[in-house]
Queue: 4 jobs
Job 1
Amino acid sequence: MNTLNLENINKQAPYKVTVDTDFPHLFYFHTDYEVDYEICIKSNDTFVPSGAYALDIRNKCNQPSPGDPKFRQTLMAIVEEFFRLNNDVMLYVTETEDKKQASRNRLFVRWFNTYEHRDQYIIKTAEGKMNGQINFLAIISRKDNPNLAQAIAEFDETISFLFDPPEESA
Amino acid sequence: METTKKRTREEVRAAFRAFMREKEEERKAAEIRLELYHKKRLAGLI
């Protein structure tokens, strides 16, 4: 992954973003609601074998986040800088047992859909059960990614294998 | 374009479970990193 430019991120981000110098794929910021976040963008080929990057949003003890537009803008500043420097595929994957949490998991995708440059991207989502757990997966890419067709085909194949067939879902 | 090995349903599901285990381990490690970030921020080092 090409290293993201922190200065560019902070030009767009309402919260000051810092990076772990030992781990340049980890980004940190603190919100007005006193919540510290770690954003991780790490290479992963589980879902798209030809190559992708998994996005993770973490905070301490999974603290709930109230509706915070500054959080959304800060996260999108990091995502935008990723795509500016990396014409690759990004994946967002979550697993949960309860529907309320599943709804929160989809929040990132709802934010992405209201992103001002949304038209430059393709986003595809899938949701289903595997062994009783609700899994939510999203693949995001710039439309001009030369490997987009292969990545989407691999993502679709992963989904077809991953989820329980309807008759197995209780 | 690089071709990839044909995968089976079992391989994909096993890889997914491994991914989720790693994700959970990473989440625990992140708690420690976030605590360090919190302390550095309070100390004015960030």
Job 2
Amino acid sequence: MSQNRPRFSRAAILEGARRSLPVQVAVVPFGLVCGVAAQAQGLSLAEATLMSGLVYAGSAQLLALSHWSSPAPVLAAALASFVVNLRLALMGPVLGPWLDRLRGWRLWISLFVMADQNWAMSVTQMQAGRWDAGFLFGSGALMWVVWVASTAAGHALGVTMRPPAGHPLFFAALAIFVAILVVMWRGQRDIVPWVVAAAISMLFAWLLPATSWYIVLGALAGSGAGVWRDRRRRVAA
Amino acid sequence: MTLDPWVLAAIVAMAAATFVTRAGGYLLFRAFSPPPLVRAMLGYIPGTLFVSYVAPALATGGVQQWVGALATAAVMLATRNLALAILGGTAAAGVVWAAG
């Protein structure tokens, strides 16, 4: 049955792009900041644009740029990217039911454009019974375009465009995740995993800042607690 | 329009490391079909991952973040509309920012 459902349709790609529009608003200030940071470290417009286009991971780029040197720190920048983006390794398997149905370039490009925001939107689509991975690609491809363009704009416009730290525009990024959590809440059974995730993530954000270990460890601990609780219940029943 | 070879090398290395995280987790999962216990955890990952994102940010944030988060959640609960929730929450955070 599921074999006949569309797996990468044009309609889903367009819908993903359309429904991700509100998220794009929050991508722009980060792109600007990333472009300004690249310019401040002496990267050319071509280099800054190439970095955003090939890496396409805001927090990793900002962290690497904050520790930039001349000649460029190849190994340190790669390591920082790996550690900050480890959470992406947890995110891919969750979309398995969609990704398993893709082959060749469709699979690779869908994985390439997978980022926090469009992954979260795709997960809520999947939980609502949708089957088409085109949604992940459409929302991610538009975000890639916005990300690359706003980085280039940040570099070209320079320091004058920099929104001050603490500007409410930066809150928009956090607002996306708060809003998505409201959709992801499935009731009582989420209490234990979410509380454990909150506690562990806060502990490791304090112990190991400037990485994404706290996100990975919080998610693993919270999910582990949920599964452990479910097993105990089943044994007791 | 200059491309320094070291900068280029760093960019390519960052891109490779990032793609390994994007594709690696999924490919490992597909290749090794992990035990049911690990599979069961996937069902909890989306929520707990974003809790782990948001909780430390709110813990280290100030009134601006707290008011903004409450407003975002309230608008989302009321309307189930992502655009309105982001807009409402960011506007509330903006009000606090302008007042402070």
Job 3
Amino acid sequence: MGLTLQSTGASILKEMFAVQTDSQADLIVALAGNPNTGKSTVFNSLTGLKQHTGNWPGKTVTNAQGKYTYDGDKYILIDLPGTYSLLANSVEEQIARDFICFGQPHVTVVVADATCLERNLNLVLQIMEITDKVILCVNLMDEARKKGIHVNLNKLSTLLGIPVVGTAARTGEGLLELKETIKSVAKGQIQTRPRHIEYDRLLQEAVEQIEPRVHALLGDKINSRWVALRLLDSDQALFEVMDHFFNFVLSADEALAENLAKAQLFLKKNHIDLNELRDRIVASLIKTAEKISKQVVIVENKNYNYFDRTLDGILTSRFFGIPIMIALLGVVFWLTIKGANYPSALLATIFFHVERYLTFFLHWLGAPALVHEILIHGVYRTLAWVVSVMLPPMAIFFPLFTLLEDLGYLPRVAFNLDHYFKKACAHGKQALTMCMGFGCNAAGVIACRIIDSPRERLLAILTNNFVPCNGRFPTLIALAGIFLVGSAGIFSSLAATIAVLSTIILGILLTFLTSRLLSSTILKGLPSSFTLELPPYRKPQIGKIIIRSIFDRTLFVLGRAVAIAAPAGLIIWVMANFSVQGQSLLAHCAQFLHPFAQLIGLDGYILMAFILGLPANEIVIPILIMGYMAESSMLELDSLLELKQLFLDHGWTWVTAVCMMLFTLNHWPCGTTLWTIRKETQSFKWTLLSFIIPTVTGIIICFLVAQGARILGLV
Amino acid sequence: MNRKLIPLNQVPTGFYGKVKKLIAEGQARRRLLDLGLINDTVVEVLRKSPAGDPTAYQIRGAVIALRAEEAAKLFVEIIHD
């Protein structure tokens, strides 16, 4: 299938061990924890990095690294993927476990949610089995206080035998203490004595038959009791990695093999098969967690989650759940379209005033006409359009979307939609990777790691492109805005909203359809098991949302667009101004594409813009404008209305706008996404397929719409 | 106390069930166990999603959604408190 746990696991491992230390003296700190415990917020508060955090499981999809200095020492912080356990062998769990085992961090900090300690303790206990140098950071203490949940940290520390620090990373509470504790443990000033899990007598006996030999072979490199347990558990993946990192083939040791066989026979005699063994291991962990939690957590108010339950009752209600979801999305788009209009026009005006001054300036410098042409008409104008068309919608859309994300709404979306994913034989978490795709399809593809089953993961990867990303949203919104918000008034922006919303819904329907089709053809199979956590709602921090979404997302996307648009502008300008046989290169290309493009309701220039837009979808519209302008008598654009006129002059009708919107939704993924798919699937075949599927879909849909409109005489 | 065991997916919303048996195998079994669904764990059936499946459960302080196929592998004894 091209995507095996091993192949992906190995490549990820290579990536993650590239911890960048400046000197040997740097101290490495691994940050582990359940998803949704505010782990990334702890990471950001410690390092000052702005890694995006989201209130849904599986957010940290790659290992982020950050640095901080404390008391004269440099610390390298590694943010491991959020996991509930280290036993179940998903790619993410493997990454986290392998780093803790073989990355040799000086300290491992486990971040836990104070409002849900018992569940979090499972992971804490497992990590304590692997390494002694563990600190428990009980985060979200503020949330817990609000809910009337008290955690006795001192007692917890005594019971676990490791340092425990209470924090509220969002407000900075407890972080200094955390840094101090990390320092003390890293430097050996605090000796930790992690409590050992008490397994039942039979298991203990079996472990004792193997452990001495393991210890003799591996010494203190790794906890031998834990390795012995994994040996009994026949955890093959672990031993492959162990061979790799210790350069030592554990399974080749005869004495050990003999002991192991003896221990296994012993278990068998006592009617403990592999399933039973695993059950007992997990049961011991869970029971220990329960016992500890009972001693340290006091819940004042038994109805502490009343608010969450009520809100869930509305947002996932049988009748209103899905309508509310669509309405929320609609409101977001409406605000974006309505709100972006004015600043877009304003920016355009400003930019084209500046253009005049730049022209004067270049004249004053005595620059040759060619340079002026290239810089102003080629590069500057493209940039001006990218910024004025894209910046306002993004600056409104991203904060709104981030708000929903921070609230914890996205897992509810997954919950509402899961049934349809199941019908498509796909994984429910695909809804989460789709949401991530709204931001960036490449990120969405990486996020597919949260899906364990290789088949379903491929489905999610191959269909991620059906959600329009950052780079394509502005095109959709601009087209809807330009063609449907012509006449002022509330109804026109409502129409534009409905147009964008329908495009998104179409994308979602296509995702279901394609997943279903793939499941019954080349990716045959039944849906695998699915568990989804619905984390508590969190009060969003408006200020941080605005700052984060502007800096992390808006400016990032804009920066990428500008970086690619500038050279692209240059190339287009050259193509538009160098003639072969009395016609510009651009016109030649457009003419060549035109007959086919017309069949699908576009024109040669539009199709060419899509092709040249392969590096980044953001530049499709700018390329198109340049293409048209090179041909057009109109040299200056100073408002969006003139942009519409430019399109109309080139024979656009509403069908052209609709087809271009549809093709924006359905065409090949951008270069970055394709590269990411290649990396994630380790397969050229799947990468090619991820290119073909949306492209063919787009061609078919646009063809049907264009020809349908023609036949029905609508244009 | 010899009460009838029923699959978790058949427990009505608002009721509590005590886990008595898990028939899942392999990976699915591990995943359910990792959620803390060992014997004698009390599970509250919170609500069904708009399409009737999956269902959200309160398990050891966390809200977890399970598809009917998974929940059917857990046999519980309904408790009335």
Job 4
Amino acid sequence: MSQQGRKIAAGLAVLVALSGLLVAGCGTGAKLTKGPVHIVVKNAKPVGGVKDITVKKGKPVGFSVTSDVADEIHVHGYNYHKDVKKGGTISFDFPAKIDGNFVIELESRSEQIASLTVEP
Amino acid sequence: MKRRRAAAAVALVTVAAAGIWPAAALAHGLVGRADLPIPPYLFGWAASIVLVVSFIALAALWKQPRLEDARERRIFDMPRMVDPLCGLIGVALFGIAIYAGLDGTKESNQNLLPNLVYVHFWVGFVLASVILGDVFRVFNPWRAIARAVGWVSGRLGIRSPLRREYPEKLGRWPAVAGILGFAWLELVYTQKANPRILVWISIGYAVVQLAAMAVYGVERWTQDGDAFSVYFNLFSRISVFVKRGRTVYLRPLLSGVTDMPLKPGSVALLCAAIGSTTFDGASNGPLWASLNPDLQSFFKTLGASANVKIELAGTVGLAACVAAVGLFYHLGVRGMRTVGRGHTTRELARRFAHTLVPIMFAYALAHYFSLLIYQGQAAGYLASNPLGNGSNLFGTAHWGINYGVISGAGIWYVQVGALIAGHVSGLTLAHDRALTVYQRLRDATRSQYWMLVVMVGFTSLGLWLLSAVRGAG
């Protein structure tokens, strides 16, 4: 092998090592959500930012929303819609049949309040 | 030395970027479901396969070019009616989409226009071209209109008074501008899915194409100027089918890529396409999530309004990704120049540019496959209700999108498979070309170490953009 070839082989070896390290240093992914999730909407925004809900495929998804504005809560992908009254609370309960990442939002305001991740 | 330092910088940025969780974001504006990042174990497997394949490729080199000047075999002649008929279908679809954009609902998911443009047209034709050959050429609505006009005016003996020679220096730069413009529209513009705005952009684009065809001739402009014709034609070169006149020929897979025309702008076009897909991936990732707010607040201090600051930040991101891809390719070619004498960087950059075509396809498929497979189903309900006004022409208006057609893991395998296949194809093309560029086999092989680095770099970047590895720490 030429000198240049050796250099490149060395570079590639470093790359293998690096990717190996990266992979080894990784956990198993996101933490699963435990217990019921309650989202509070104040001034049409989720308190504490967009909530992450992570479940395994096939397991139930459960969360409730209390909002200080009247709107429709829309779970994208699953296409569940429910109206919430001003100051009211509604809850969702459905099996996680589809894997992927889905937005849950205040439909008329296009304001994301939660992110649903269903792991395969 | 300089090059190694650059590589170290890239590695550092990569490592630094790992450590922040990717922000959940919906790509492409229209979708209800976003892909999950490729899990670490799959990333590890894919990266290992890529490296092993690369070493095997170096060991099992062939000594004669196999794809260059490959033979084509005639299969059959298309009936004379096919071309005008497909053109008519193209014009009709374009017309309906424009009508939906002007008169239909503003709800982008329920309007035919945004779905047709971003999903069936932009992504659908990529896949169709790779499988069937240059299908866009026959369905191209503006080419069909221009040809019809040309046929009629030819009969009447009228010649366009505007006719000029196409300036050779212009090369494929109009197409580069078009592709970058479309990428900006799709990935940066905040009103991308608004049917009322998209419709005027579509009409404007068609008018420009028709005017340019009147000046430079239909075929000449289609070949180099119309962004979509040029873009889809590049993908169709991967296909085993090619149509010349009315005759369809069969050729070895990938062999069409070797005849990619080398013109000013050819390299830029590939870098623009790969760079914009890179930005699509990166804009959903952690690096962008951390840079974006700073960029936006910077533009806010300059007095930009809410939407404008988002668009300015996005423009910077898009430009940076295209520039990074171009720079990376250029560095690889610079390295290649040190092998054997008598080749300029410019010459090599153009002679090896075609090796980026499979990489471009791999990136496009990996990023847009789920969009096509899921959002593509919107065609079902939109066919019956193109304006989103409650009509039910074929009784399919109640159809929805079935997100169960392929599992999340299935999408991962397609993404990883596409990237690995693109990598192998790129290497194959590069080796084949090196055999014709370098007289000595030894030089050809040595030059390939550099192309190998380029390919491994692009494939690793592609994997990284799609993986959860970027977010773990």
